[in-house]
Amino acid sequence: MKYKKLWLGFIAVMVGSFAVLGYYGTEIYRQAPPIPDKVITASGEVLFTAHDIKDGQNVWQSVGGQELGSIWGHGAYVAPDWSAEWLHKEAMFFLDTWAQQEKGVTHDELDEEIQAMLQARLQKQIRANTYDAETGVLTVSDLRAAAIADVSSHYTGLFMNDPALAVYRDAYAMKDNTVSDPERMRKMNAFFFWTSWACVTERPGKNITYTNNWPAEKLVANEPSSDLIIWTGFSVIILIAGVGLLAYYYASNREEEIDTSKLPKQDPLLGLKATPSMKATLKYFWIVTALILVQVTLGVVTAHYGVEGQALYGFPLADYLPYSITRTWHVQLAIFWIATSWLATGLYIAPAVSGHEPKFQKLGVNFLFTCLLIIVAGSLAGQWYGVMQKLGYGENFWFGHQGYEYVDLGRFWQIFLLVGLFLWLALMVRAIMPAFRNDVEGRHLLGMFLISSAAIAIFYASGLMWGQHTNLAIAEYWRWWVVHLWVEGFFEVFATVVIAFLFVRMGLLDTKMATTTVLFSTIIFLFGGIIGTFHHLYFSGTPTAVMALGATFSALEVVPLVLIGFEAYHNLELSRATQWIKAYKWPIYSFVAVAFWNLVGAGVFGFVINPPIALYYMQGLNTTPVHAHTALFGVYGMLGIGLMLFVLKGLSARRRWKDGVISFAFWSINIGLMLMVLISVLPIGLLQTWASVEYGLWYARSMEFMQTDTMELLRWLRVVGDTIFAGGVVALAWFVIGLKTGWSLEADEDVSAADYPSARKTKALK
Asked: Is the model's pTM score more than 0.90?
């Protein structure tokens, strides 16, 4: 394939995809659910103002936001989805009030015909859009005002300290006095009402709600729309067609088997002399190892909160580290350690590729390391202060907890991190530029390396595009730019380029093959991945066109993952090709694991929830963490571990590793992850899906369903996978420490010759 055609294809995909993403982003701005200036009753009483709703959103963010329950299906899974539950409680208040007035009984005690009549009356009233765009006033009936007051009273008791609701707080892993100020609670209720109002109110001139009839709620006629069903079918057709085309491409461009006679007879990296800045990256991997241990420990605690809501084996841990904090830190540290591993690998590779150590490069690497430590410690501390309600609205936004999953850190820490990423980019560019100027053959691959590095710095800036009072639908649009485009998109491209560089440097791939493969893979991945961002936004107050585009292009995201087995097989064959390559067995095995989890976690488990009709019932259920764990840790985490091991091997290339501990670590991590999902999280998610289809999301997330004996048993079964997984992580840390102390290394073994036995024999003769 010609470089020119590949570059033109890459440019076309980038320009075309971002044009679509940007255009429909403006539509999201234009058609987002409006925040009324006032919410008043038919009799003229003011219930809420826009200021109340916006402040209430800030209160919700400060208590953990999406780390404590969810809104519009996005967030944590132990507590309810507040928008769905509010809607159900409000609907039942209407129905029970009418049933008492007309028959003197509750709605559930009525016969089916009268129930149907009352539900039809409810649907006519509650789905009607009574918002006046000209005056900015939303008018509700006096009965609905009574329903709002009733649900608000329940949530006030739940989030504060009503003893009668203690059993609910325990089931939802909420500490007492999650919100301690009645005024803050009043405002958060205003925000909850608005999110629920968007779920049930029809768009002007449409017969679907602002959230495309999500959540499923038969009482108010929230059912899958015809568009949702049609685009689900179209996404499946696109998937099949895409797989067929890519299979044809692979068949017609099948690679020859590895010719071992053409591979280097000795390890090319043995001649590589680590520069001072390359050696300085070692401390990054020590921090990566420490963060993995802390992150997994917090994951264990967070999972345990699901079975013992406010305590850890009797100890009242929620008083000091509530669920919303342990989950925040668990998610945030995953991003931190994975990103740190990848960034440190880039800092190691750049001088290695160019053979040039810029002046003060080591100082820059050490300064960036200090900045990262401050960002990690400062942001985690700020989140704790926010959740413990020790910060005001503005202070929490800047230094505390923003409440948005994966981008929870305060705005100050976001800006600090962005500056750090641009510092990293500068260090990368100044180290790689000599090679870019001198290496004509490798210039195209180096170009992709620089572009992917720049994208990592630039696209994190999308996390600054929302403000303290931004409409939630708009904030979600930009949040997924960070989570999907930054984490899942351009980090993936960067990783592809880095692995190609490693294999080229080791003589396992020629530069031309590596370059064409990287460019083609990037085009295929981004063609579906950029616009595929919309599959996260089906039900977040977005127009129907977003659903159509998200369904189509998210199916295309899966296409390259279906044939990822070729990559896994190729990497496995490489690990066995010559004797010296076996020294890199565990980094390469990690890359094989990445390919496996790409297929299973990102591909299979991702597509299970991506089609609109599936996500309509599954959004906000435990089917999502099945995908999240197997994709985030399985793909990005294992890649971070593989890159770390590769660099650590490069820093001690003449020493052979002992296989015992690292073998146990590798297999325990992967087997534990699989068991965690298959015997606990996935069964819980599938049972919740049945409950969501049969009764609605509110029930699938309710205490009455989640606290049954069956669900309790399934949650406890997670201990099996978690224990094996945690054992593997501890073993990995032990092995990494052993590389420094010596217990992970064989006794002074020279591996510079073509194979170990001859090296030992030569040494013995001497």
From this structure: yes
